[in-house]
Amino acid sequence: YQVDDEPLAVGGMGAVWTANDRDLDRKVAVKSLRSGIVDHRGAYERLSRETRILSELSHPGICPIYDRYLLNDPPCYTMQLVDGQTLKIAIEEFHRKSSLQELRRLVTSLISIANTIAYTHGQGILHRDLKPENILLGSFGEVYVMDWGIASLPGDSDPGRFGSVEGDDPALSLSGDVLGTPAYASPEQMRGEIDSLDERTDVYGLGAILHEILTGLPPGTTATGEATA
Fold first, then answer.
1. What mean pLDDT is predicted for residues 15-42?
2. In angstroms, rounded to a whole number, what is the distance separating the alpha carbons of residues 10 and 17?
3. Residues with catalytic annotation?
4. Quick one: DSSP state of residue 64?
5. What does 115-149 look like in DSSP terms, one character per residue?
């Protein structure tokens, strides 16, 4: 694979790049650990777990994984590359233009997200970090749920036990005993009650996304982006 110079997106623990698959002559997406945390055992465990989860899921709302390279430096995996934008950007554009047609598109997208999550719940898997930044809208109506880094597998040790809290920005994902993103996380997530999380945790995240679609703001924030009590 020949990876592009600049990443498509950068998160708390990983980055996504565009690459060229020389063998099949196609563009793919590559998700890798950020260089500063390559030696972080918790981050490695999460990336390994994420590839296992993606390999078990087969649904139109989930990008398929192609290969994983856990012994690479940095560890990474390849998956389908989608031409589109995040739901976060689509919501911001909607609230600038106030188009009824666009509102219908966003609500229809939320229904697709709910159907995808219903499928994963049927497989015993919770996403646990649903937010507009983790939803990708394709150019031809596709709706993908992305970033399964803190998802849970049935009967497995919890990835939330690894790592530590990375920051207090309500738009950033957290690790450690507090899972999720503050503005979209359920009360039990924010209390660190990992063992009590179930399907309702993701349903809360879906409601938080709907709140942002309708208001233009994440739950619990003001127009300036500040968190409210």
1. 83
2. 9
3. 129
4. P
5. HHHHHHHHTT-B-----GGGEEEETTS-EEE---T
- Tell me how crowded residue 79 is: count the other CB atoms within 10 A of its CB: 20
Residues 6+ apart with CB under 8 A from 76: 30, 31, 32, 33, 47, 68, 69
Q: What is the pTM of this model?
A: 0.85
Residue 132's φ and ψ, nearest 5 degrees, are -55, -30
| Inter-residue long-range contacts of 226-229, CB under 8 Å, 24+ positions, other chains counted | 227/170, 227/182, 227/183
Q: Single out the residue of 127, 166, 160, 128 nearest to residue 37, CA to CA.
A: 166
Tens digit of each residue's pLDDT (9 = 90 or more) over 36-73: 655 566 778 888 889 999 999 999 999 999 999 988 88
CA distances from 137 to 8, 20, 112, 209 (A): 15, 22, 11, 14
C-alpha 60/C-alpha 172 separation (Å) is 27
Predicted confidence (pLDDT) per residue in 148-176, tens digit: 988 988 766 555 544 333 444 444 454 55
| Averaged pLDDT for residues 137-146 | 96
Q: Are strands 84-86 and 76-79 parallel, antiparallel or unpaired?
A: unpaired
List beta partners, residue 97: none
